[in-house]
Design goal:
362 residues; alpha/beta; Rossmann fold; 2 domains; six-stranded parallel beta sheet; 12 strands; 15% strand
Length: 362
């Protein structure tokens, strides 16, 4: 018998890959499709309509439980309390996967903390990705979280694609749309100063059109002028573009030897997971639990050693590249086995919370 989950969201790659790979056997979990929000063509599930009391009341007969991953960034704690109360009224368990202990899009931690306070207290079960995150959850909220790894991100055809052969060593830093946890310019400057001492090394910096172009709401003139100046002096290879499609992103990461995550705070990373799928080194900050998630090189997220420690991490990757070493890379068969295990673990978890809820209401 199927378990029907109102998954928020359903279309995100992380959630899609909680189901078994095609041909791996049946899955008793059915995730409802995301109701289109109409607000964002780039992310049709956001803001999620499922996270409303009206949707829950209207569709209570259509699902067995709700599982929240992402999408509550803009919702007040009171709104989330109302959602949790609506689920209780209709005897629908709530499962929460904690991807972020600190929201990378929020300048301050207070809003996300207050949202997590509500969700942690309301959830019938909690999942997270690393033991370190589970330890924080236990300390801060007194809840035990089940630790389940992040599934693969890139599709099979990319997982098995050979690494490109080339003479150079490419360091990539993608500033995206300069979200709140990013401070890339000191890192860019440190790398431009250090890479000439690394034979064959070059720095590619990517940024989205919205921060590089005058007249766009997120335009940052200081950031744009600085990168353009470095590019004009041939110190960086600058690429300005809109959001990558999935295949464009996989191709970009596949062509890098090391990808720098220019974050000052954060918890886990799908970007790191994609690099592991593709065999690209990651230089990740020592905040959060990136190093527990997948093998990576680390540097100081904040403080006076931030830039110099990044240079040392990149230098380590370069030394290994000169020696012919390759970054740890996910194995296609292992990723399929992991995905089957994740599907089974989620099915068992859903069955358990439903059984507990039934016992409480009978």
């Amino acid at each position: 018998m199927s378990i029907v989950v109102a998954s928020i969201p359903s279309g995100h790659v992380y959630v899609r890959h909680l189901s078994p790979s095609a041909g791996s056997g049946g899955d008793t979990v059915v995730r409802l499709p995301d109701p289109p929000s109409g607000a964002s063509p780039d992310s049709p599930w956001w803001p999620p309509r499922m996270l409303t009391t009206d949707w829950i009341a209207e569709h209570a007969a259509d699902f067995d439980l709700m599982h929240i991953h992402f999408g509550f960034d803009a919702l007040s704690p009171d709104h989330l309390r109302d959602v949790a109360a609506a689920l209780r009224r209709h005897a629908k368990p709530l499962v929460l996967t904690v991807h972020d202990l600190r929201n990378p899009h929020h300048d301050a931690a207070a809003t996300h903390d207050s949202q997590l306070d509500v969700l942690m207290a309301s959830a019938d079960a909690i999942v997270t990705l690393t033991p370190g995150a589970a330890s924080v959850i236990r300390t801060r909220w007194g809840r035990d979280a089940i630790v389940l790894p992040h599934p693969h991100v890139v599709p099979d055809e990319w997982l098995g694609r050979p690494r490109p052969e080339r003479d150079g060593f490419v360091v990539g830093l993608h500033a995206k749309s300069l979200r709140a946890n990013m401070d890339p310019l000191p890192l860019v400057d440190a790398l431009t100063a250090a890479l000439p001492d690394m034979p064959g090394a070059r720095l590619r910096v990517d940024a989205h059109t919205d921060v590089m172009t005058a007249g766009f709401p997120r335009h940052d003139i200081e950031f744009a002028d600085h990168l353009n100046d470095l590019a004009n002096h041939h110190l960086i290879e600058l690429r300005v573009h809109d959001f990558f499609s999935d295949d464009e992103l996989w191709n970009y990461l596949h062509d890098l030897d090391v990808s720098v995550l220019p974050y000052q705070f954060g918890t886990h990373s799908g970007w790191l997971e994609a690099c592991h799928d593709l065999g690209t080194w990651v230089a990740a900050p020592d905040c959060g639990f990136y190093a527990e998630q997948r093998p990576c090189l680390t540097y100081a997220a904040t403080g006076p050693e931030r830039a110099s420690s990044l240079v040392e991490a990149v230098r380590t990757a370069h030394t290994r590249w000169l020696a012919g070493e390759v970054a740890p890379r996910a194995d296609l068969a292992d990723r399929h086995t992991e995905r089957t295990s994740l599907a089974r673990s989620h099915t068992e978890l859903y069955a358990e919370v439903l059984e507990r809820r039934l016992a409480c209401t009978s």
